[in-house]
Amino acid sequence: MTVKPVSSYLQVENVWKLFGTFAALKDVSFDVHIGEFVCLLGPSGCGKTTLLRIVMGLETQTRGRILREGGDISGLPPADRDFGIVFQSYALFPNLTVFDNVAYGLHSRKMHGAQIRDRVEELLTLIGMPDAGRKYPAQLSGGQQQRVALARALAPSPSLLLLDEPLSALDARLRVRLRHEVRSLQRRLRVTTILVTHDQEEALTMADHIVVMNQGVIEQIGTPMEIYRDPRTAFVADFVGEMNFLDGQLVAPGRVRVGGAELQCMLTDGLGDHATVRICFRPEDVDVRASGAGTVNAMPVEITAVDFLGSFYRATLRPTTADAAEVRADVPIHLQRELDIAPGRMITVSLPSDRIRVFARD
Question: Of 25, 111, 276, 335, which one's alpha carbon is 20 to 30 angstroms from that of 301?
């Protein structure tokens, strides 16, 4: 195998995947470091599962290569890659007990009976199911089956754990609990992990780094905070979290006209003079307490709707002086009471210039 100097555990280099004339992956590259938890995030059809299957060895890339610690493993079958896999369906053997499901991959390692028993018992304790060894998958809840599938994947102590949307079949409340359990387990074991998901909240809460994909290409790679706070493309801004979008025109460096209003913006580099643009900002960044003549990006609005979302209110606002679309603002409960945020009221809001992102409009 070809060996190159390595600074990471896994390297995906310039990978393409063609199905006939359709390019499912287009020149995809990223690194995964030892002990890191990386999420491949994107909508259905973006290529993330195809990419995971190529890393697994279940698909062969058309071009490019997969490196593990500097060695090219692109041609290795799945069994020789030392990777643990948890599928979306869990794929537990229904005719085997929980104990035998977890022990399944240990027999090929030529481990003795006592070693297998100790390892299975260790893992069942680790996942919080020490007494479940004699049960069958049909006797378990969905969450318990997910834990068993995870234990089975971890049993041979793989160098890389691959998770293909393992929580998507569970109800929302159980998903929230189990994603914290999976992340805690990964941190304790320090097992390098790649998770495929279309759930942005799952990626933001679990990942060290997120690889955002769209139509076979990588839109952005970054920490959850970087992806959320500093989206590099309009797609990432729209796909991750709630976002307001308004169409406008660049009138000067750092200034955009939206309808009849001019807004200060921090980031307009790379945009041509008088470019047609889209600006975007998060609902939680709208300041509903704007006051004073010197307030930056002040905008009088009418409150047209207020929705209660548990820990905050989401207000729909219609600008009164600018010919612009409605925007949403997230208002903490205490401020809603203090400011009497209610439909029909007129208030002035401001948009912090450092929280506005500007993209060229296609």
Answer: 276
> Which residue reads 């493993």 in tokens?
73
Q: How far apart are CA 174 and CA 191, in angstroms?
A: 23
Tens digit of each residue's pLDDT (9 = 90 or more) over 309-360: 999 999 999 988 766 789 999 999 988 888 889 999 999 999 989 999 999 8
User: Can you give the pLDDT at residue 292?
Assistant: 63
Q: Are 28 and 220 a contacting pair, CB within 8 Å?
A: no
213 contacts: CB under 8 Å, gap ≥ 6? 28, 40, 41, 42, 46, 47, 48, 51, 219
Distance between CA atoms of residues 192 and 26, nearest Å:
25
Distance, in Å, from the CA atom of 339 to the CA atom of 348, rounded to the nearest integer, reads 11
DSSP annotation of 220 reads E
CA-based nearest residue to 298, from 261, 255, 268, 244: 261
* DSSP letter string, 103-129: HGGGGGGT--HHHHHHHHHHHHHHTT-
- The tokens for 222 are 């970054």
